[in-house]
């Protein structure tokens, strides 16, 4: 049996995008990916991220916001930055860890009515789901 690819999804607050990516990876790719998420300046898991993921059948309510420094001892195969800030401030990981950037809009910054904000969260949730479906192959082939 081959080992799972260890993937860290990294963003700033570890409240929305990286939490959704971790949830999708566990739900869709748990057989081939060992998924983690963290932030460079973690806050709390956004309740709307929990809500829209639950709508899609993925429960992330037990996940917590973590600082990337908590995971520096983990030997990741790939670190995927999900926002420009995380890309710019990503720590150096030991060994041959591949760092890949895939930016997504920040749903926490959505404005408008409750329905408009939820629509923004759902769009980003679905974009992240579609990206996670391509893992780990899509990020292991890049230079």
Nutshell version of this structure?
The protein is α/β, with parallel strands linked by helices and 143 residues long. 36% of the residues lie in helices and 15% in strands.
Task: Please outline the helices and strands.
Layout: E1 5-11, H1 17-29, E2 33-39, H2 47-55, E3 78-81, H3 84-89, E4 98-101, H4 114-132, H5 137-140
Parallel strand pairs: 1-2, 1-3, 3-4
Helix pairs in contact: 1-4, 2-4
Description:
- The structure is a single chain.
- With 143 residues, the chain is α/β, with parallel strands linked by helices.
- The chain has a single domain, classed as Response regulator (Rossmann fold).
- The chain has helices at residues 17-29, 47-55, 84-89, 114-132, 137-140; strands at residues 5-11, 33-39, 78-81, 98-101.
- β1 (5-11), α1 and β2 (33-39) form a beta-alpha-beta unit.
- Residues 5-138 form the Phosphotyrosine protein phosphatase I domain.
- Pfam families: LMWPc.
CATH class label: Alpha Beta
The span between the termini is 27 Å
Query: Could you say what the CATH topology is called?
Result: Rossmann fold
Radius of gyration, in angstroms, nearest whole number: 14 Å
Taken as a percent bin, the fraction of beta residues is 15-25%
The arrangement of helices and strands along the chain is EHEHEHEHH
In total, the number of domains comes to 1
How helix-rich are the residues, as a percent range? 25-40%
Low-confidence stretches: none
Which outline best applies? Answer: globular
The CATH superfamily name is Response regulator
Q: Calculate the mean pLDDT score and round it.
A: 92
Structural class assignment: alpha/beta
Number of strands: 4
Oligomer state equals single chain
DSSP helical segment count = 5
Strand order of the largest sheet: 2-1-3-4
CATH architecture: 3-Layer(aba) Sandwich
Taking the sheet with the most strands, its summary is: 4 strands, parallel
